[in-house]
Each structure stands twice: as structure tokens, then as C-alpha cells.
């Protein structure tokens, strides 16, 4: 019954240790590739959890997310995803690289979502990239014969969609604050969460942005009033990514000879806003670092816009700023909900098949995209930026200023294809490419061109990370 299949990674069979364990339990299977799998409800997601008692393997359908609070209450334990380093050591012993849905490998208790036994066929991660086990009725019973069942996961289809009206965002954030605040505050949102005002430097720069007569000298004067910002601008202009000839001697030199007025305007705003909130100390394992994601996104979104027909391009400066700030809600989320940000991180680790904004919707009733977009509106930032942030995960958005949101979506999808970012792969619909007047090949080339300079980009990431301590 064991049918071999060749995968993209070159595997044609399971490691001997896995094969032996399956034979010992009399479990038959077919090997399948990702494009041969059935409905998500019949695909098994495996999550290795642990606490002071020990490890536990949880199995649930891929069209659901595991709720750590529910499974903790079910078992009377305080479970969190096993740390990546520990999991890698366990998997290495069996010659595999991902957590398989095979309880016998871990020698630990197993609990499975009850809905799984409603099906007569399941597809299970084998532990090797791109290779899955197709298991049918009797063999499913053998696989989970010593496991416990329960209801501890949440259907993704049950999560509330993004409200159509952006004005609803403030109410959603306020409701979430009230739900997680013992005082049940009734003040206006900005009073309740004490959002700081738009930084003074950003205010000055934004005034220059809308002044048609603003000069490089005026921008240089504003930048130079903030020593950290001035050092960053000169450092960027001197970086290998821009390959400027000669030495950069001043801020004005950096603006006029290398970076340009628009780029420095938006770079200065992004840097000033990034200084407003600290990076959270607790982050989800395996996720791309905040500034790395921001800078890669800004660079790629700039490349995508330049690949569009000239008469269809959005304003390049705002486009770059939208890329730089697309994940700003992440910082605000950690600021507003510090006790619960850790819980969000653990759920992201436990549900790598679920986009983080859906996890936030489940746990808080509001997403980082809504929070980031609301704050942009509260600070009177351009509507193009707030729209891009709010609809960045909606591939079908075709409302006002959709080009900015669509370009951020496309950028994030291209990064996920190249293993940058977090969460599952994001489909790229033909309709989205048509709205942007881009071909699939042109989009891929724009992303690859930027990432070919990844080493130089990492220098800029380093500057961002260490310039705002």
C-alpha cells in the first residue's frame, strides 16, 4: 500500500526510523505531494506543546486554529508551543525537519480534535518538506488508538471579517481594550490607551511634504535638528545598497546626490514613527524581525510600482511609506495589550498555517491592520497609507486608493514565496495583478531584484535596529 512519490525536495520515501514505526503499528499509507491533497478539513495540522509536566502532540484540521486557552482548560495544563531549538533536536533524531502528525515519534500523550474522526481519509505531514501521508479509515484508528479527543480548535470560517467601514475600527479597538481592562474604561479611545502624539520631527517633515515650494535645504534643516535621524540619513546614503560614488559629507549631500527629496521625506517619517514605540521583547519564533520585514517590503513595493506602466503608478513616496509602515500595528498592538501580546505570539507559533491577523481577530476582536490604520488616521497621515495598512491582507480590495493596498498585499505575498515574513503562503489572484497592470513574471522579477541585494539591505536593517535604541 505504500506508494512512493517524488517531491520537489527530492524525497522518494520516508526515513527508515519513521517507516519502521509505522510498520510496527500496522499503519498503511500512500505518499502524496502538496498538490495531491484533499480539503483543508481533512488535512491534519500537528502542534507540539509543552509545560512543566512534559510534551503533548495536538492534532487538528488545517481549516481551524488551535486555541491554547481551550486546550489548557481541557487538559488542566498551561501549555505553550515547544521552543524551536528543542523541537529541532527531537526531529533531527528521526531525520525530519517539520513536526509530523505521528504520535508514536514523540513518545508523548496526544490529543486530537474530534472533527478529524468524521472523515474516512486524512492527509498528514510526514515530517519531510512537501511529503504527506494519505491515511484511510482503519489506519486512522490505529494512528490515534492511544490518543484522547476533545474540542479545542476554532473554525477559521467563524472569525468575523474585516468591517467594511474604517470608522468601525475605533469601536473594535475600544471594545478590545474594555474586554482586557478590569476598569472597563468608558473614555474616548485615545484617552484610554494614551496614544502619544505624532512625533515633532514627523510633523515638520509632513508639512514639507505638502509644500510644493519646499527645498532640499529646508528638509536638510529639519533632519539635522534630530541628530539620530541625521546620522541615519547619511548612513543610508553611504550604504552599499545605493552604491553612491564618493564620500557622503552632509545630510544635504545625502538628499541631493543619492537618496532624493521624496525618499528622505518618507524615510524620515518612518524612522520618527518607529521611534514612538519600542520593539516588543517577546516575539513569535520563526518570524522575520520587524525592521527587516519593513525595509524589504518598502524596497520591493518601490520596485513593483516602477514596474507598472508610468501612467498607472501611484505616488512613489507614499507607496514606499506604506511599505515601511505596513506592520506598524504590530508595535501598537504590543503597546496597547502588553499582557496579551505574549499570548498572541504563542498562538502564532502554534498555528503557522493561519495568518496572524486572523489569530488576533480570534483573541482580541481586532487586528493589527485595523489598529495601525486607525492610528494613521488619528495622526492625520495620508489616506493612502491608512488604506494600504487596513486592507493589506485583502487580495480582493478594489475600493478607493486600492492600488496602495494591493501593492502591499502583493509585496507580502512575494516575500512569503521567498520564506520572508510569517504565516502561510498568500495566493496572488490574476484580478489583483490586472488591477495593478503587472504580469506575474514582472512582479517576481521586481522582488528578486531587490532580494539579490539582500546583504546590502541587511546593512540598512542594522542601521534601523541600532539607530533607535
UniProtKB/TrEMBL annotation:
Transmembrane segments: 316-337
Keywords: Membrane, Transmembrane, Transmembrane helix
Domain HDOD residues, every copy: 195-395
One Gene Ontology term of the molecular function aspect: aminoacyl-tRNA deacylase activity
Pfam hit, one: HDOD
Identification of the protein by name: HD-like signal output (HDOD) domain, no enzymatic activity
Source species of the chain: Halopseudomonas xinjiangensis
Amino acid at each position: 500500500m505504500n506508494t512512493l512519490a517524488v517531491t520537489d525536495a527530492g524525497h522518494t520515501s520516508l526515513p527508515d526510523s519513521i517507516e519502521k514505526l509505522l510498520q510496527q503499528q500496522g499503519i498503511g499509507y500512500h505518499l502524496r505531494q502538496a498538490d495531491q491533497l484533499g480539503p483543508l478539513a481533512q488535512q491534519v495540522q500537528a502542534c507540539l506543546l509543552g509545560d512543566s509536566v512534559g510534551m503533548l502532540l495536538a492534532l487538528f484540521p488545517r481549516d481551524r486554529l488551535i486555541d491554547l486557552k481551550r486546550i489548557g482548560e481541557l487538559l488542566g495544563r498551561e501549555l505553550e508551543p515547544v521552543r524551536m531549538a528543542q523541537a529541532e533536536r527531537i526531529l533531527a533524531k528521526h531525520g525530519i525537519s517539520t513536526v509530523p502528525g505521528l504520535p508514536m515519534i514523540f513518545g508523548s500523550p496526544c490529543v486530537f480534535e474530534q472533527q478529524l474522526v468524521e472523515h474516512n481519509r486524512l492527509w498528514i505531514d510526514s515530517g519531510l518538506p512537501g511529503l504527506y501521508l494519505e491515511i484511510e479509515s482503519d489506519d486512522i484508528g490505529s494512528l490515534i488508538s492511544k490518543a484522547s479527543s476533545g474540542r479545542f480548535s476554532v473554525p477559521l470560517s467563524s472569525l468575523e471579517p474585516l468591517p467594511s467601514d474604517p470608522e468601525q475600527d475605533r469601536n473594535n479597538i475600544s471594545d478590545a481594550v474594555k474586554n482586557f481592562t478590569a476598569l472597563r474604561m468608558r473614555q474616548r479611545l485615545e484617552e484610554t490607551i494614551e496614544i502619544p502624539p505624532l512625533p515633532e520631527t514627523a510633523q515638520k517633515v509632513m508639512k514639507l511634504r505638502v509644500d510644493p515650494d519646499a527645498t532640499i535645504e529646508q528638509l536638510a534643516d529639519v533632519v539635522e535638528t534630530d541628530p539620530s535621524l541625521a546620522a541615519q540619513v547619511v548612513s543610508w546614503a553611504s550604504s552599499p545598497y545605493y552604491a553612491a560614488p564618493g564620500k557622503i559629507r552632509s545630510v544635504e549631500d545625502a538628499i541631493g546626490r543619492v537618496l532624493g527629496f521624496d525618499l528622505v521625506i518618507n524615510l524620515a517619517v518612518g524612522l520618527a514613527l518607529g521611534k514612538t514605540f519600542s520593539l516588543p521583547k517577546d516575539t513569535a519564533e520563526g518570524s522575520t524581525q520587524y525592521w527587516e520585514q519593513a525595509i524589504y517590503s518598502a524596497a520591493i513595493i518601490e520596485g513593483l510600482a516602477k514596474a507598472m506602466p508610468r501612467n498607472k503608478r501611484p505616488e512613489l513616496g507614499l507607496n514606499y511609506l506604506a511599505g515601511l509602515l505596513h506592520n506598524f500595528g504590530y508595535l501598537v498592538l504590543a503597546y496597547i495589550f502588553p499582557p496579551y501580546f505574549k499570548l498572541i505570539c504563542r498562538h502564532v507559533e502554534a498555528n503557522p498555517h493561519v495568518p496572524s491577523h486572523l489569530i488576533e481577530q480570534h483573541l482580541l476582536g481586532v487586528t493589527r491592520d485595523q489598529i495601525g490604520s486607525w492610528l494613521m488616521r488619528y495622526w492625520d497621515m495620508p489616506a493612502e497609507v491608512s488604506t494600504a495598512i487596513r486592507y493589506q491582507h485583502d487580495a480582493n480590495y478594489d475600493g478607493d486608493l486600492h492600488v496602495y493596498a494591493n501593492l502591499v498585499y502583493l509585496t507580502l505575498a512575494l516575500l512569503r514565496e521567498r520564506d520572508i515574513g510569517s504565516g502561510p503562503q498568500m495566493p496572488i489572484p490574476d484580478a489583483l495583478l490586472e488591477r495593478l497592470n503587472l504580469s506575474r513574471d514582472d512582479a517576481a522579477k521586481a522582488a528578486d531584484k531587490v532580494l539579490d541585494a539582500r546583504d546590502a539591505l541587511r546593512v540598512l536593517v542594522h542601521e534601523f535596529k541600532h539607530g533607535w535604541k
